[in-house]
């Protein structure tokens, strides 16, 4: 279960990639724009200013996230849906998916399907975190491997692999798109007040730790959290009241091919 409040704790840091992704989409007056995995909808709602005449839709598979998005009372049409079942309409000129596909096994096939089903000259703009080899995720996997809970947690640990920018560029170029792909490592400076949880632990609670918390009994979760907190404090020491948290993200913007008559 997703908790919109916990997820939004680091709203500033989490929103920046969305804006940097959208900065590379030059659609002037798209007919329909869809945000796949829109989460709490706060970022989707900002699209109203950019494309006031477009039909805007936000889809997410979490009822909690969609409830939060609907409560924004924005002109965006928010609905519950799994991105794996989604097909673009004939007027879908822009598709955005920010920090979602790392949760979706088989998303490379989905991307190719979307690229083929979208109308000509449509935009497909995607960002995925590329941080599974960072100390934060290594620490999480090390704690999850403890005999006490490894059988419970092994099936939950994310198996979806995320490509690098060149991998997605090749995939979508082969599907007939013009591709702009890049990677960025942000260094988030997270405040670490004394006597509070380590900020990287708080960050992970909004995303990667969610399924683990849901799977463990309360006492085990408390032990898990405590041990992970110690490891994170070693990996990301507090300096001048903050921690330096590098976070790599992979971006790609694909534009579907020209209509057949333009190619002749
Ligand atoms: C890290 S949040 C990102 C939310 C939003 N895009 C943003 O940038 O703030 C990931 C979101 O992906 C959604 N999600 C994960 N798998 C999904 C799927 N198969 N279909 C639809 N949404 C999915 C989750 O429910 C969650 O809201």
General description of the model:
This protein is α/β, with parallel strands linked by helices and 264 residues long. The protein has 13 helices and seven strands. The protein has a seven-stranded mixed sheet. The chain has a single domain, classed as 3-Layer(aba) Sandwich (Rossmann fold). The structure holds S-adenosylmethionine. S-adenosylmethionine binds next to helix 2.
Key words describing this protein structure:
binds S-adenosylmethionine; alpha/beta; Rossmann fold; 13 helices; 264 residues; seven-stranded mixed beta sheet
Outline:
With 264 residues, this protein is an alpha/beta fold.
Topology, pairings included?
Layout: H1 4-7, H2 11-22, E1 32-36, H3 42-45, H4 47-50, E2 55-60, H5 63-70, E3 77-80, E4 92-98, H6 107-117, E5 123-129, H7 135-144, H8 150-153, H9 165-174, E6 178-191, H10 199-205, H11 210-215, H12 218-235, E7 242-255, H13 260-263
Parallel strand pairs: 1-2, 1-4, 2-3, 4-5
Antiparallel strand pairs: 5-7, 6-7
């Amino acid at each position: 279960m997703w908790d919109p409040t916990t997820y939004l704790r680091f709203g500033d840091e989490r929103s920046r990639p969305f804006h940097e992704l959208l900065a590379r989409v030059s659609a002037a007056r798209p007919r329909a724009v869809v945000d796949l995995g829109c989460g709490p909808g706060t970022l989707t709602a900002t699209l109203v200013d950019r494309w006031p005449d477009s039909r805007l839709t936000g889809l997410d598979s979490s009822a909690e996230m969609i409830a939060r998005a609907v409560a924004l009372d924005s002109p965006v049409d928010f609905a519950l849906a799994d991105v794996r079942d989604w097909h673009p309409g004939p007027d879908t000129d822009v598709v955005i998916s920010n920090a979602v596909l790392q949760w979706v096994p088989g998303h490379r096939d989905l991307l190719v399907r979307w690229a083929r089903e979208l109308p000509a000259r449509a935009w497909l703009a995607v960002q995925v975190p590329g941080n599974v080899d960072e100390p934060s995720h290594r620490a999480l996997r090390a704690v999850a491997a403890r005999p006490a809970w490894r059988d419970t947690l092994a099936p939950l640990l994310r198996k979806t692999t995320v490509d690098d920018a060149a991998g997605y560029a090749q995939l979508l170029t082969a599907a007939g798109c013009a591709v702009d792909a890049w990677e960025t490592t942000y260094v988030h400076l997270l405040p670490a007040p004394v006597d509070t949880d380590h900020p990287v632990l708080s960050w992970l609670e909004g995303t990667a730790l969610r399924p683990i918390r849901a799977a463990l009994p309360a006492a085990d979760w408390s032990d898990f959290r405590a041990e992970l907190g110690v490891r994170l404090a070693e990996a990301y020491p507090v300096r001048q009241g903050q921690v330096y948290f590098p976070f790599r993200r992979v971006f790609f913007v694909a534009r579907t091919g020209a209509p057949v008559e333009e190619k002749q």
